[in-house]
Amino acid sequence: MMLEPSIDALQEKIRSKYVLVTLSSRRARQLREKNNLQVDHPKSSKFVGMALEEVQSGKLFVDEDN
């Protein structure tokens, strides 16, 4: 079974696995509380999966300049 989005594809957007996990877990909590999803028709039904789909689509990112 292949999980989407793949870790390789996500790491093209955010290089650090630690940052990726932290960002997606924080966003998952926001989604659970506010339900303000930024992607249309997510494949995942779980909040973490939805957050990772936002990363993949470029809607959720880290400003590495700061």
UniProtKB/TrEMBL annotation:
It comes from the Bacteria. InterPro entries: DNA-dir_RNA_pol_omega, Pol_omega/Rpo6/RPB6, RPB6/omega-like_sf. GO terms for cellular component: DNA-directed RNA polymerase complex. Transmembrane segments: none annotated. Keywords: DNA-directed RNA polymerase, Nucleotidyltransferase, Transcription, Transferase. It is an enzyme of class 2 (transferase). It catalyses: RNA(n) + a ribonucleoside 5'-triphosphate = RNA(n+1) + diphosphate. NCBIfam families: rpoZ (TIGR00690). The RNAP catalytic core consists of 2 alpha, 1 beta, 1 beta' and 1 omega subunit. When a sigma factor is associated with the core the holoenzyme is formed, which can initiate transcription. Belongs to the RNA polymerase subunit omega family. This is DNA-directed RNA polymerase subunit omega. The lineage of its organism: Bacteria, Bacillati, Bacillota, Bacilli, Bacillales.
